[in-house]
Amino acid sequence: MQTAAECDRSKTFILSLNCGSSSLKFSLYHALSTNLEWAGTITRIDEKKAHLKIRDAAGHILERHDKHYKNFNAAVSEVIAWLKSKQEKYPLMAIGHRIVQGGPTHFKPTIVNDDLIKSLDDMVYLAPNHLPDEISAIKAFQAAYPEIKQVACFDTCFHRDMPSYVKDYPLPAAYKKQGLIKYGFHGLSYEFIMQELAKQYLPVAEQKVIIAHLGNGASMAAVKNGSGIDTTMGLSPLGGLVMGTRPGDLDPGVIVFLLKQTKLTADELDDLLSKQSGLKAIAGISDIQELLQAEPENRLAEEALKMFCYAATKNIGALATGMGGLDMLIFTGGIGENSAVIRERICHGLGFIGIELDKQKNDNNELHISTGKVSVRVIKTNEELMIARLVCSVFNYAIKQ
After folding, report:
1. Is residue 182 part of a domain?
2. 240 to each of 233, 251, 322, 334, how far by Cα in Å?
3. From residue 308, how far is each of 16, 278, 303, 345, 378 by CA, in Å?
4. What are the φ and ψ backbone dihedral angles of 92, each rounded to 5 degrees?
5. Over the stretch 297-342, which tens digit does the pLDDT of each residue have?
């Protein structure tokens, strides 16, 4: 029998917001169970034709149209207007936000207040391509729903306990005081995957696990005995693996060269590294599926794919070595979940550490796709659901299954 408090929660919802580099994901969950009510996306923000799509839990289209959203503020305003038009049907209990970066002081999920917003404003220099839009979204929802509490869920939280010899850069200590440390990202995805592994009754608390979150932004995390001990991204989401429009790891001399020889400004350099590098720089195409389609007749597409897979293979080997072995490899993210050929290419040649794929199971995108001593799995991530779970944890609400 439900308590009075549970009855109240069963009639309200948690909204999860996830601002990407050019997209906005927003999902509504029942506050009592965190079961999905509907999920929406706005893609290609700032392009001539952005696309809005909202589907219910069964996959039926609730809303779909193309429209020009000149910036994130316009996209957020569209979501607010849609929610306001249906607020009697979907009364909100709380709103959770994915926040890419909280600096050296904010890691755990936190209820938003004026002090937190000021602190995030002061840290924009650490994530100039993400934090401004995320802060703007918080403020827009504050104005639209002043009575509803909001929760900031930091993407760096999963990596907060990395050892100092991993987290600290070999630079003078004065820079560390300004927040110059290795933070790591995709933490909400990694936390969700670890919860899913626990649901599968796998003994992950005693194992060495690598999670490969592969999408347009891509990273990997090494998890030993249940704790994140290393990850491929560092101060920013630019480092580590080669990505759609980001370069991954670069010799620091490359940055010095670009500043001195080409006279790029800091903003021009940021734009180059964030939007003009990676796979796009090699082949003019940033999407993996488009590259695979072009590969048979396009040498540059072939080269870009080789670069992507090589970087991923190399980092699996490095992270496994850092942990002293490997028990489990998890593929997740848009590419990791859906591209059997990329998984096969990444794992090819890793038999020496016990990774052997079952071709049929891999081609079918099955949960368990390996035959070797290292268990290789494909698990769909859900950052928006992880946000809803964290919102419940902040308010100490049990999730009723």
Report:
1. no
2. 5, 12, 15, 18
3. 31, 9, 9, 10, 19
4. -90, 140
5. 999 999 999 999 999 999 999 999 999 999 999 999 999 999 999 9
Give the per-residue pLDDT at 203: 83
Cβ neighbours of residue 144 under 8 Å, at least 6 residues apart? 80, 84
| 397 occurs within a structural domain | no
Do 231 and 116 sit in the same domain of this protein?
no
In a domain, 259, yes or no: yes
* pLDDT band, residue 249 (cuts 50/70/90): very high
27 and 90 both lie in a single domain:
yes
Spatial distance between the Cα atoms of 227 and 241, rounded to a whole number of angstroms: 21
Assigned domain for 399 exists: no
Q: What total of structural domains would you count in the chain?
A: 2
pLDDT grade, residue 5 (50/70/90)? Answer: low
Q: Which domain holds residue 96?
A: 4-154
Say if pTM beats, i.e. exceeds, 0.85.
yes
Cβ atoms of 370 and 358 closer than 8 Å: yes
Q: For 41, phi and psi rounded to 5 degrees? A: -140, 145
- 155 is a catalytic site residue: yes
Structural contact between residues 208 and 320, judged by C-beta atoms closer than 8 angstroms? yes
Residue 55, pLDDT > 70, answer: yes
The DSSP secondary-structure symbol of 400 reads P
pLDDT tens for 8-51 read 776 899 999 999 878 999 999 999 999 999 999 999 898 888 89
End-to-end CA distance of the chain, in Å? 13
Q: What is the DSSP letter of 295?
A: G
Token output for 395: 């308010």
Co-location of 206 and 349 in the same domain: yes
**Kindly report the CA angle at 246 between 168 and 227, in degrees rounded to 5?**
40
Structure tokens at 293: 């389609």
For residue 234, give both structure tokens: 């560092």
pLDDT value for 1: 54
For residue 92, what are its two tokens? Answer: 């909100």
Place of tokens 């100490």: 396
Q: Which listed residue (155, 267, 287, 358) is catalytic? A: 155
Last residue of a domain, one of 154, 169, 186: 154
